[in-house]
Specification:
Two copies of one chain form a homodimer. The first copy, chain A, is mainly alpha-helical. Chain A is built from seven helices and three strands, in the order H-H-H-E-H-H-E-E-H-H. Chain A binds a DNA duplex (30 and 30 nucleotides) through helix 5.
DNA sequence: AAAAATCAGTTAGCATGTTAATTATCTTAT
DNA sequence: ATAAGATAATTAACATGCTAACTGATTTTT
């Protein structure tokens, strides 16, 4: 038995770094940070969301999200409004420009994904995604 | 066919968040950040390392590592010295206090790992680690 | 050997991670 | 109806992520 087993969390981090290397160049080209792209992608799929939910889905803490959204609002990628029913809540959605940003990038990101899948293996990729989702079910 | 497949990188991030939730409380108790613990753990296993190598293993960029090590040096967890052969290189190792820090934490971290493994499944955990390591081989 | 290129680490500047405290709003208990 | 409690978001303060530029030391080129 090994004295030190390998760290799951470090391996998840290192593996993610490798995966990100397939996508980072494209993000750099359009001047979006990883976090901003996550927000664009999620809002594109889910439509208008409140900040709590968006932060949870994007793995961005709420205090960080405040700044991320402020900069994206300046860049006119998203717009915020307060909910009528509950004045505490803030709802966020993509602007038309934000939608176009996603559309113009999605093809290229798909190509990057294909490159990764080709080198890694489609079945292995599917298995990995299943295992990751099962790990996520341990939340709370 | 789904219009939007799920994002591998986001799933890796979300899964890591769940995994970290098993360890964060322990880190908080001793006042170490995630990054500092990674440095302690790696130096404990590998002994003295140069900064480039340490940064690569710990998934911490060199500019960040400068600050991390400065704070850990102030806390007297690590010590730095320049290599005799190559004055550009800086070598880092744990102090005696740093070693004790690791020793006093490793048991508890191991318990956390057991809890995770018990809930997730030992075989699944092994499979996941294998798949992650295979993904890491795509580096470069 | 001297200049140019390379390399290790740091510094600088801004974006984000993280926790605690704060503000404004809403809900619940009395 | 009002005060206490809970909730959503922000602010503040410091640590880290990230890129580019910079410094000093080593290697390569000419």
């Amino acid at each position: 038995m090994p004295k030190h087993r390998q760290s799951l969390t470090l391996n998840l981090l290192q593996a993610r770094e490798v995966a990100m290397s397939f996508f980072r160049p494209s993000l750099k080209d359009i001047g979006l940070t990883e976090q901003q792209w996550r927000v664009v992608r999620i809002l594109s799929q889910q439509g208008e969301l409140e900040i709590n939910r968006l932060a949870d889905l994007a793995c961005i803490l709420k205090p960080s999200m405040t700044g991320v959204l402020a900069r994206m609002e300046t860049a006119e990628l998203v717009e915020r409004r307060r909910s009528e029913h509950d004045q505490r809540r803030v709802l966020v959605k993509l602007t038309a420009a934000g939608e176009r940003c996603f559309e113009s990038m999605s093809g290229r990101m798909e190509e990057n994904y294909e490159r990764l899948q080709e080198r890694y293996g489609a079945e292995k990729l599917q298995t990995l995604l299943v295992l990751l989702n099962e790990l996520k079910t341990l939340k709370r």
